[in-house]
User: Fold this.
Amino acid sequence: MNISAPFVERPIATSLLAAAVILAGGMAYRYLSVAPLPRVDFPTIQVSGALPGASPNTMASSVATPLERRFGRIAGLTEMTSVNTLGSTSITLQFDLDRDITGAARDVQAAINASLSELPPNLPSLPNYRKVNPADSPVLILSLTSESLPLAQVFDAANSVLAQKISQISGVGQVFVGGGQQPAASRSTRRPWPAAVSPWRTCAPRWRRRPPTSPRGR
Assistant:
């Protein structure tokens, strides 16, 4: 018995059945719950720290290094990257897929608290952390220029005024300000020499003059 014989003998019914299957498949495709490219949410936490006026090398050695030393002891950490710029550092921590993001956040907070004694004492605020998505990209990029104001004032206006207003908009998750110049004060710790003492003074030997002797008679 040939399976295709009934369909060949009834071409109209076969055509209607094929059209019904195609129509049902087209309608069911709209309700499929599986995306063409599955979205994998990696547990990722970003830690940010700021020290106004510090160079990238200073941020890497005094802020990022102590934090990275503590973060490396967290269980389930698979990748850690850091970016150091003028006055700020950003450390991205990525964990295993089976790691709970809430538990990882508690471990990150404990690591930050443990590294407080190794961080610079003049930090304006403690390092903060937040959950991020590595696949996210900036939605809006603004650039500020001025022909009359110096770069430090433009950066201060963008950081203290514009960034604060944008962060208050509903739905905004993060506002990052970069590419500016922050003012810094330098202080010299060299002790001045007293006015009466010169470090380049040479000490010449002193020759004691002996009084002349003359023969004496009795």
